[in-house]
Structures are given as C-alpha cells and as structure tokens.
Amino acid sequence: MVQLIGRRLIQLVPTIIIISMLIFGLQQLLPGDPALVMAGEERDPEVIEQIRRQYRLDQPIPVQYFYWLKGVATGDLGESMRLKEPVARLVMQKLPVTLQLASMAMIIAILIGIPAGVVSAVKKDTVWDYLANILSLWGISTPNFWLGIMLIFLFTVKLGWLPASGYVSPFVDPAQSLKTTILPAFVLGNAIAGILMRHTRAAVLQAMNSDYVRTARAKGLLEGRVVLRHALRNALTPIITIGSLEFGTLLSGAVLTEQIFSIPGFGKLIVDAVFNRDYAVVQGVVLVTSATYILLNLVADIGYILVNPRLRTS
Amino acid sequence: MSASVAALAAEPAIESPRRRAWRRLKRRKGAMVGLAVIVALVLMAVFAPLIAPYDPAQQSWSAVRKAPSAAHWFGTDEVGRDLFTRVIYGARASLMAGVISVVLATSLGVPLGLTAGYGPAWLDLIISRVTDAMLSMPFLILAIALAAFLGPSLSNAMIAIGVTATPIFVRLTRGQVMAVRTEDYVESARAIGNPRWRIALRHILPNVAPQILVQMTLTIATAIIAEASLSFLGLGQQPPAPSWGSMLNSAQRFLTNAPWMAVWPGLAIFVAVLSFNLLGDGLRDAFDPREK
Hints:
The complex is a heterodimer of chains A (314) and B (292).
Chain A: H1 2-26, H2 34-39, H3 45-54, H4 61-73, H5 87-122, H6 127-141, H7 144-158, H8 174-208, H9 211-218, H10 223-260, H11 266-275, H12 279-307, H13 309-313
Chain B: H1 2-10, H2 17-27, H3 29-46, H4 48-51, H5 83-118, H6 121-135, H7 139-150, H8 154-180, H9 184-191, H10 196-232, H11 244-252, H12 260-287
Helix pairs in contact in B: 2-12, 3-5, 3-12, 5-6, 5-8, 5-10, 5-12, 6-8, 7-8, 8-10, 9-10, 10-11, 10-12, 11-12
C-alpha cells in the first residue's frame, strides 16, 4: 500500500513540472511588454523598471522560469501588485473559505445524488427512474450562476429567509455561517448531484446484475439489504473516484458562485485579480488549485484501493 | 442463377453504421427533442435580424426596466433594450463560442491524440504528460486564466475554451486509437505497406470518429456554459453586443426591481445546454455497439 502511494507520488512529478511550465507560460501570453501590462495605468519609467527587475523580465525566459520555480518550491508565489501582500498568504487566507463551501456542496451532492441514483437503478423504467433522470439532467444543464441568482431572488428578495451575500466563519457564529453558505453550497452541489446520480445509477445497475447479488438474493436476504450491503457497496468504487474528481470541479464552480454571493474565497480572489491585472495572484491561484486537484486524484486512487479488497491484495 | 438472385434479394439489406446510428437515434425521444431545439436555435441565430422585433442595441429611456408586455415579450433591460431581441441575438455568441471552441479543440486534440496513439513512443510520452497536466487544471479556472492573459473579447474567450478543452479530445482519441490499433484491419493495412499516417487517417480515424462526435456534442454544452461564465465575468462578449452571460451579469444588479432580466437569458442557456446534453447522450447510445 505504502509502495503504491509512493509510486503514484513519483508519477506525479513530471505532471507537476509541466503544470508549472504551463502556468509560468501564461505570462508569455500577455500582449506586448509584460512590464507595461503589469504596470497598468502606471507610466512612471522607474516603476516599470522596478517591475522588470522584480519579475526578472530583463532576463532570458528559462532563467525567469528557474527563479519562479525556485520561489514556488520554497512557498514564495510572488507578491500581489494590488494588495502588496505575498500571494501564498492570500491563498492560505482564502482557501479555507472555499474548502468549507466545497465540502458543504459535496455533502449536499452526496445526499441528493447517491439516493437518487440508487432509487433510479432499483426502480428502473418506472416514474421514479424518469424523475431521477430529469433531476440529473437539470443539475448538469443548469448554469450555476443563473441558479444562484434565481435562488437569491426567491430566498432573499421574495421570502427574506436568507442573506444574499456575505460570509461568516463557522468558528465565529456557526448558525450565521450556515445561513450565509447554504445557498451557494446548494448551487455548487446541484451540478455534482446530477453527475453522481448518473454514475451511481450505472454502477448499481451493473452490480445488480452480478453473481454475488444473485447469490445474496438466493440466500433469502431482504431486498433492501441486498441493495445497500451488496450492490451499493460494490458500486461505491467508481462513485468515490467520480466524487473526488468532482471535488476539483467544485473549485472551478466556486469562482462564479463566490462572485454572486460575495463570498471572500478562492474564486473571488482570482476574479478580483483578473480585473486588477494582478497576474501573480492569477498564477498562484491556478497553481494551488491544480495542486489540490492532483492531491484529490491521489486521494481517489487510495480510496479506490481501500474500498476494493481485490485491488488491496494485488 | 435466378434462384440465387432471388435468395440474395430475400436477404435483409446490410445496414451501414451511419444509417443504423440514425435509426437508433430516431428512437430516442430526448435526443430528437434536443436535435429539434438545436436546429431551432441555429435558425434563430442565423435569421436573428428577420425574427427580432427591435435592434439589439437600440436604447429607449422611456422603456427602462419594463416588465414583459405585448410590446416587449420578455420585458426590457436597464437602458430600455428589448430583452426578447437580445436573447435572440445572444444565441449567436453562445452557439458560435460553443461550436468554434469545440472545433478548435477537436482540430488540435484529434491529430495530437492520433499521433500519441499511433506515432512514436517518445511523442506519446510527451503528448500524454502535457495532456495529464492540463487535465489536472480545473477547466473553468484555466479558461479564466487564459482569457485574462489573452485579454477580454469573444474571440479570445473561444480560444481559451478551445485550448482548455483540447486535452479531453487528445485523451479520448489516444484511448480509442490504442483500442483499435491491434485490430485485424489495422494490421492488414500495415501488412500491405501503408505508411503510418495513411493508416491513422484512412483506417483508424473513421473508426474512432463516432466517439469523437459524441464528445464534441457534449463538449459544446460545456463550452456554452464556459462562454456564458466568461461573459458573465466580463471576459467574453463585450458590451453593447448581446450575450446571455453578460445579460445575466447586468440582471444581477436589478434583481429586486426587474427579475425578468435574469429569467430569460438564464433559461436560454439552460435550454441550449440541455439540448446538446440530450443529443450527446442519444448519440452515445446510438453508437454503442451493445445497443440493438
């Protein structure tokens, strides 16, 4: 097991190096002189020269990349031009907010997607199956920023039950924190629920046709026990993989959702950085998101092995 | 002689794979509804000047934020522009972004995937590693970063979405090529001395095309949402040109007084994305060899 994880970690090294090249390469896409673009409205030659020196723009690209990578390896992601703060510190401040939102969204997605998928598979070709499929298509096809706007209209403007924006940490006031994050979490979880439902349905249907389910039924076990203890348990392997991968998608989805609900997380950080031409922050956010995504892939691999005894022993 | 001709005539005609897929697709109501809506949306986008009752940029200070009425079916926006007209014209940006970015992703991804799957091993290694790396970067965040560095415009948004979607096609094509490269027809083509590029283009590509078509349809749905997201953030279509995403952005500010401003563009995105998803699902089933 440890050996397997070690092997997976080694396999990640080239991927991480290429990602770092791609993210560094983004800077080369800036039209014209990057120092001028980074300076924005500022036209003072001294400031421009300072930017050129600070980002080593006067040096060859491989040298710039080497210094940038050296900084990243030591946790230095550069400095925000707008906020005059280290990017790493900004990212660490915002990441917990987005992770809280993403975790809540995943819980909502699991609570909706997995039961809907099981019901859909067990009651195949009935009205329940059609309803679950509609739910899934709704989740997959609804743009989450539109759903967010519509929910604000319903729950804030019309009913006045929940706040439209703002964020309170769960360590400060758990109840208020729940109130400020439940809508955005639902918006994010909605799409993932649709995807989870589809995969759960397919996996449970496949498991229900297998020999071990037939054997469990032949032993006289109750149908509920057959579905939950035998079919679903075996179907969990692909569901865990999809769930972990979709957790990474939540980080993407959070960009717009946080913007709509004014939640000061990771997504809002990148959007604000884009509009303020704070390129170091954009690069930093993409890098940390990709690293998180890779880590989640690794967790998915390990989860895969843990729930599947055949993989554990091989 | 005549007996054998009669026997041949009695044999059921061999159905071409394309015809079989179309027959199966026609049986799927959801896919056919999706296809019909897509055709309607395309016609709406092409003939927008003939269908739309107003000019999409025409402002009217006497009709600011008017609720839906006989004169303005979907109501008006914050500067008195007709929302029905703007939703119709908005289809142009969304469909164009969806289709062009996916065509870009396919034209980059499929040759790269073919090269990775059927070319030399060292090229496969490089292409696969870069693909893995790009797939490790969340789709929308990468698209936003690319669009931010390229500069805000619809064409840059399409490039950003296209480049971001490319690894999906590389991986899919490579996987399909790997699955068919040891098939008899590929081996035979090689045995008679065909060069690699000819085998890849003439023998392998037609056999992996159905899966690519399915993926293209589903990726158009993703690209439409991505374009709307970028336009919502101000990185796609620039005002005053209409786009469903940018319409939602301005609607957000007037939610209390003019909620209709948010309903129609969002509904339009939903219908377009749903239609491509339904068609993609139907095509996947229609091309599935396990299906009857």
